[in-house]
Here is the input.
Amino acid sequence: MKTKLDSMLRRSRVSLAVVSVLCCGTLASDVLAQSSEEDAAIEEVVATGTRLKGTASAVLQERQNQAFVADILGAEQISRTGDGDAASALRRVTGLTLVDGKFIYVRGLGERYSSTQLNGMTVPSPDPTRSVVPLDLFPSDIIESLNVQKSFSPNMPGHFGGGNVNIRTKSIPTDFVFSVSGGLGYNTEDSNDGYFYAGGGDDWTGRDDGTRALPDAFANALAASGSAGIEGSSSTTLADTQALLSSLNWDIGPDPKSIDPDFNVGATLGNVYDLDNGSVLGFLATVSYSNEWAVTNEKNGSDIGGGCDNSGARCFTKALNGPSTEQSVRWSGMFNVGYEYDSNNKIELVNMILHDMRDRVRYRDYFDANESEEGVTELSRLDIIFEEREMVSSQLKGTHNLPNWWNSYFDWYAGTSRASRDAPDILEVTFEKNFNQAGEVQFEGLQDLAATNLVRQYQTLQDTSDTWGFNAAVPIFGDGYEVELKFGSDYYEKTRDAENIDIGIRHFGINDTFKQGQRLDQIFTPENIANSDFYLSSTGRGLFQDNTGNGDKYSAASKLEAYYFMADAFISNSFRVSGGVRWERFQQVSIPYRPHSDIFAIEREEILESVYNEDDLFPSLALTYIMDEEMQFRVNVSQTVIRPDLRDISASFFIDPLTEFLVRGSPLLQQAELDNLDLRWEWYKPTGNNLSVALFYKDMANPIEMIELSGGEGVPQLLTANAETGELYGVEFEFLQDLTFISSDLSNFFMSGNITLSDSEVKIGRDDDNSLYNIQLRDALNASSVTTPITNDVRRLVGHSEWVVNMQLGWDSLDGEHSASLVYNSFGERIIVPGVSGNEDAQEQPFHSLDLVYTYYPDFNTTVKFKIQNILGEEKEITQEGLQLLNETVGTSFSASLSWDF
Here is the structure.
């Protein structure tokens, strides 16, 4: 009779083998030491595991056999919920919430408290405000599974808070595969007309054709401007000004636009070949393309005050309200090649390119308490942003089992990646409409205010990274125990070059007669630009303003060197002990440049002082008690850190894309240190039903938070700073259960879901003059003493939701031709911006997402899918003091897709 240990070990080996084959994971090399009968059985299971890696059963088995607490989503589960990218899929995982459609909060900790890997390797980010990778960049078509490890293990990065997300892409198939797919979509909000502009001829490809690029005339003028500014010396002529102004693209409008339906297409091709020498060669290629439109209504408010109307009620003294029109183009390609020399040696090359573009136009009413008066002076604002994000990655990895070397194994990887962001010609302009006493329009055109500019920005970012590493292990057998000793190394280095050029066109530099018009192409016509009367100055000087500052161009670099040692032991048929230690040396520096030059904005001594250099040891221990084949208990303890991002240690401001607030870092920022504790009980029933309950606790020293600098005029400014202490604790429930317990007639129905209940507390250190926060605040304001503006010295962590709920009701027809899922997701209120000057914290409100996915399989090779998303018609909302800081309509979307397998 087989012992419980034998059974558990066998499950563990299968799980590890599957990870190794598909994701450069760890292969339990002692599989080779079994009897020939067991070898044959295990080899068969491994082959099946490769095919079933993304299915619910294989994912469940892998989760059960992990030494550390982890949650896994497979391709089948992602397909069932109809999620289109990694970000939207991950919100189904226990304790995870999605922010801004891109970033994952794990157990209520912000995106900085999680890390992302691609096939176990670190990759760069194309997001200029964060070093964490935006997860909406990864389409679900290329994903085999998503592994969220919530407890730290020594073979993971020490930068570990809420968890580590490993995106594992599809691997080499076991047989010939060829499929094509296509789909259409529509959103109820798209029935409204938006506003848009001509753009470039290549916009459908997701790339600008140069229409929006910074003109050479401007680039040359800026480079030569020096201290004299963009307008040059007193010798600047009207012709010079006219040449600069006419070089800009003014075919902007905007025009009313009816929205086209969404559509997407994709294809997959793969095969394997048995070669004469007994080796196997295989490949997999995937391509996808989507073009989507969205019209929403978006409100934003800022600067809380009173007296915006006759009642004197509190309000935002600045507010925007109106339509937002956005086009999104995404395309991706992946080409993988795998070569298996024999059953012990395999090499795989993964090549990937991910590209997305968004082009957004917002044409909204603008309220300014100091300028606006209904029926007298009314304002509107036009803003446009076009941005391309791209990631190109090549990864080479190998797995080698060494039966003649104590049944050890060795796997290795090397990768190079490039991430980029290009945002040419970000534009913002304010229009004014004046009425006479009869209510007739007296003037309509550019805002007639001395301090008002038409702003055009040109932003670029390039991240390049290289990474390599290896893992090795040797098994040791004894009477009643089996131990696997593991060791390995990771190396990662990244460089970043980024620049933001900010050019203002002063409204007061234009004669009032020529300011009139409802559209930019009515004001900045070739005839007006060529007319000398267009300019207030006879030479045109005073029209341009260069707002680019020190730090808008910067270079940054980071380097990580790591080594680890750990052991994984099964003892006395009932216990599994895994643990070890990881050593890391981390270095990082960010250097600002003077505007439009390659000259550093700080001195050499300041550069040397700004280098972030830390080395740490990270211990981890995991204990699993295996009661039987169905039930087990886990406990994990570990110590980790969260390090500042590249922008976190820079003193320059950037715009947060979610709130549109100004955010700056602190060169004095320190890493946050975490003590982590996880407990989990798991029950895996033979039918696939399962239940788990987990408790977690995190104690944090110097947690990193964003704190508002002041509540004064204009857009709020946030400081990235260290608080004194923080803690997070909670409980997670997860289950999957068919409905046979109600009636045998409901055997083809099931329910699955998870609930997370948690709380957190952070103490900023407002009342301690020597706290890190106050030291960093004084440095940011360049003052010897300051009055701390924050309202609550003790509060919940930014981004933390006290509850998260995911539920799914699934149905599969008895004939296997139909399936359907009703999927619900929601989260509790979470702080987005902490309050200052007595104001409450700004909090994002719960979003109750209810989606329906139906799939029909008319034959073995065809799949038809229908989706309805946001059935409840929920809206995104952030409130403060009972006011809407942000409100955005989402609408209900309908889509249909068809795929063929040949």
